[in-house]
Amino acid sequence: MQDSEHLEVAWVEITGEKMTKAELYAVTGVSGRTGAATAQALITAGKQVRVVVRDAAKGAYWQQQGAEVVIADLSNAAMLTNALSGVTAAYIVSPPQYSQPDLFAQAEVMANVIADAAVAARLPKLVALSSVGAEQASDTGWITMNRTLEQRLSQTDLNLAFLRAAYFMENWQPLIASARAQGELASFLAPLERKIPMIATQDIGEIAAQVLCENWQGTRAINLTGPADYSPHDVAQHLAAQLQKPIAAVAIPESDWQQAMSGQGFSPAALSGFITMTQGLNSGHIAFNNKDSNEQRIGRITIETVFKQMNELI
Prior knowledge:
The protein is α/β, with parallel strands linked by helices. The chain has one domain: Rossmann fold (3-Layer(aba) Sandwich), CATH 3.40.50.720. It has helices spanning 3-15, 33-44, 60-64, 77-84, 103-120, 143-154, 176-182, 201-212, 232-243, 257-261, 268-283, 303-313, and strands at residues 24-28, 48-53, 68-71, 89-92, 126-131, 160-165, 167-168, 184-187, 196-199, 219-225, 229-230, 248-251, 295-298. It has an eight-stranded parallel beta sheet, with helices on both faces. A three-stranded mixed beta sheet has the order 7-9-11. A two-stranded parallel sheet has the order 8-12. Strand 4 (89-92), helix 5 (103-120) and strand 5 form a beta-alpha-beta unit. Helix 5 runs parallel beside helix 6 (143-154) and helix 9 (232-243) crosses helix 12. It is globular, with a radius of gyration of 21 Å. The relative contact order is 0.14.
């Protein structure tokens, strides 16, 4: 019997009550937006946090915040099993590798490793970042990677929560500099007047932290949206107010998408996946179904707030 087990038996003999083990939450993806927001929300709430990073340098900040740092690669089952062992719950972000020619095959490899490691670690609860449209079997491009993770995890007996997030508000950030210079906000989304749900990554992280601390059994799918839906025209108006200059939304013709995305390090497969995903968003194939039975969580952060934060960073 291990020392911790001796201690628990002794406590029961003295008090008649079972000891409650300290809760510890593992968070992956802390180098990205949602993982960082999740870890920070948990730390702010006074929770014990274990951040999972690929190299020690990426964990230095979190160590200063009082988090435990564990080195693991999501493609290494033994390392990830160790990282997930002994925790109350874990937030998982399977990182897409857009420069890889086989990014969809790589997503499947990581899904298998994540599922195997979580089972081997006897993880009580797992919260995974997913996406709107992950329930669709085809024609979703990049979102296929989220579906792959959902399906593989669903083959286990783990208690799961899939966070199907709306379009990230931060997706507009790469377009701000040209909008400021040219007075036009280029948009892959069309038609320009159609509103779709969007959410700030900060909201995703804060909701993930909340869900990690909840008790449930089985599998949950949770739709995540922001406090309002926005069209490209709306986005341009809010950006104009932030930049204090006229900004007009302009649709990028589909025939120009490939050229517009060139030079950003995407592999041909990744570029094709982006185009298919964007076509699905514009056609409505990728959208929340108001008739589904999924839970829904609504964030608090508006696109005005996100643009203000972006403008301060640019």
